[in-house]
Amino acid sequence: MRAVLTAIMAFMVLTVTAQDRKVTPVDQDDKKPQQPTLHYYDKHGNELKEPVYVLADLDTTKTATAKAVYPALTSISFGANFFDAILKIAGQKYASFDVWASLSLYNWISPVVEAGVGFASNTPKGGNFTYKGLPSFYAKVGFNYNFLYKSNPDYQAYIGFRAGFSSFKYDVKDITISSGYWDETAGFSLPRQQASAFYGEAVAGLSVKIVDRFSLGWSLRYHFKMKVNNGKESAPWFIPGYGAQSPITATLSAIYTLPLSKGKIIKDEDKKSAGK
């Protein structure tokens, strides 16, 4: 009986001791060097003759970074914008015709240069004058950012910016002023008004291959005046390359593209695979 009591008391003491015991957690050292792991198979799933230790990269939360996949000089494109020609046929009172060139870098960023001629002729309905914008030169410089830079260069979706400038002349003719008091009408003109304008454009566009190296491109543009020097005696109604009153314009271009490199960049790992 004494032996049984002794055994019971010993069990109770051990139970209480186990409950009071605290487990000390193992400290995690994030800076601790990674330990190699033993590999029995290669990356293709083939069994190795002898197991090897490999220092595995256990970080599965790396952030993907944007990388170019095309050569630096991808292509050069030449275009002719004929959208205003269509609108002119439809009755628009002004037009701007331009040609442009762009250099594609990594199929990603494209510096762009545009140059053209704009003119206008308008007698506002119910107005008392005729505005005639003489053919005048304009130029624009800017860039496009292609969102599809990892895809086929034949198809692009981009945004961009242009800075434009024009120095131009215009006539304001057949101005009539009526006086109800004197019951008389006087007429005069303001010939050869000289003006200039500096303006900007925010651009969003698409280009699509049609056949061989020829494509069509569309763009929608929101423009804004930066600085306008009016004529000596009037303000211009039309600015070459900019337009008239609406802040929104569009372009439609026929494009010819000349490739400057072949295909995508071959990555190091692809070279190794090709060499096997």
- CATH C-level of the domain at 73-259: Mainly Beta
What is the CATH-assigned architecture of the domain at 73-259? Answer: Beta Barrel
The major pleated sheet works out as: 8 strands, antiparallel, barrel
Summed up, the helix count is 3
Structural class: mainly beta
**Spatial shape:** elongated
Q: Nearest-angstrom radius of gyration?
A: 37 Å
Number-wise, the strands total 10
Share of helix, binned: 10-25%
How far is it from the N-terminal to the C-terminal residue, by CA? 82 Å
Give me the side-by-side strand order of the main sheet. 3-4-5-6-7-8-9-10
Classify the fold: give the CATH topology of the domain at 73-259: Porin
Q: What do the pLDDT scores average to? A: 82
Q: What does this protein look like?
A:
With 276 residues, the chain is mainly beta. The protein has a domain at 73-259: Porin (Beta Barrel), CATH 2.40.160.20. It contains three helices and ten strands. The strands form two sheets. The chain has an eight-stranded antiparallel barrel with strand order 3-4-5-6-7-8-9-10. It has a two-stranded antiparallel ribbon with strand order 1-2. The chain is elongated and about 110 Å long. Mean pLDDT is 82; it is low at 268-276.
